[in-house]
Amino acid sequence: xxxxxxxxxxxxxxxxxxxxSGYEIKNTIEGSLGNFxxxxxxxxxxxxxxLVAEGLATSRTEEQTGRPNRHVYTLTDAGRGAxxxxxxxxxxxxxxxxxxxLKLFFGWxxxxxxxxxxxxxxxxxxxxxxxxxxxxxxxxxxxxxxxxGLPYWLATVSYGQHLSRALLAWCDETEGxxxxxxxxxxHRAEVATPGRNGNGRDS
Amino acid sequence: xxxxxxxxxxxxxxxxxxxxSGYEIKNTIEGSLGNFxxxxxxxxxxxxxxLVAEGLATSRTEEQTGRPNRHVYTLTDAGRGAxxxxxxxxxxxxxxxxxxxLKLFFGWxxxxxxxxxxxxxxxxxxxxxxxxxxxxxxxxxxxxxxxxGLPYWLATVSYGQHLSRALLAWCDETEGxxxxxxxxxxHRAEVATPGRNGNGRDS
DNA sequence: GGCACTTATATCTCCTTGATATGTATCTAG
DNA sequence: CTAGATACATATCAAGGAGATATAAGTGCC
Lengths: 203, 203
What we know:
The structure is a homodimer.
Chain A (H helix, E strand, L loop, with lengths): L5 H10 L6 H11 L8 H13 L3 E6 L7 E6 L1 H12 L10 H7 L6 H32 L6 H43 L11
Antiparallel strand pairs in A: 1-2
Helix pairs in contact in A: 2-3, 6-7
Chain B binds a DNA duplex through α2 and α3.
């Protein structure tokens, strides 16, 4: 089962929006797919060359004075066909690597407070994610009104909003559970060593 | 800002549970972090060598007859220190690559039904994810009862459950929106070309 | 006996990321 | 006016990372 190169289809998809240079492709990806997909020049330029070699795109060189010539790539019918074929293939899903979970997994080996600090940090990150998506939603609605792609693009933004709400709910739940463990430990420590009273911080 | 190698800390973390060989580390990761983290032999073996070179672990060879000798790695105090230091560093979060969103983003260029099919596929995947996590939760509760790590491990499972519920909710919402577009298009097609009536499928 | 699977170590290729190199043009703050 | 930042445009490199494959013996089953 030779791994299929999804970057290739991301580039193909962007080219389906119109002829572009490698530089423009990168910028377009950042400004559209950027929230759930990324590509680097290190992939884009070799992919463009292979697309031409496979007959999925053609390239034409635009002469420019004072800066490197633009290499503009245009999708061929075969290229559009390859894109449609990939779109029809079944989707995969991968949770991916989640750093907060890696840290939390080993968290029982150190004071509960350390894990709670990590969770509070992560809550801030998740909140930032949520407001970022809200901004994008407003921007899309005001600048792309009437475009047939709008509902689809809003769906990708909504994915991010559902995700960030889920992260926040998970933070709430987990902070509650670890908080209870901390109180429990604090209580037992208090009973064991009376005198060190009213366990300091509770912000 | 040289990218820090998180795989190194995953290996360090696993070694904090006890001395292990590269093979055992791989298996242990799959059976514990497996739902949100993965490592391949191609990373584990070079990392183990570099851990020894950096003084973060020691290796000892157990002679075996009939099969390759076991190289068992043990965390040093410096290694445990490096792990704790990394645990204290701020966490990052990355939504990562989401294939369904990449496909959906280009979905407006083809019939709505195609995108709805993708969403229904994705719903099945998300449901599978949810039941997988439920199974893990039950298994953890019944086999690890009383272990101080249990609440932390359950928290990582809960993350997956929150995530799968969010994916399902997003599917509901998006199927509703695209379904409305489809009905709208069907309606307009009906008005435009009367005669081809009662637009076939609606499952 | 043959076949599939598991234990165990290790390497290889390819994908992917992020940094860097090169060089001009334009914009901006001091 | 000019130094520095940013945009345009192409391209390469070193690492990080995933997955398949190589090797080799042991175990269980038909």
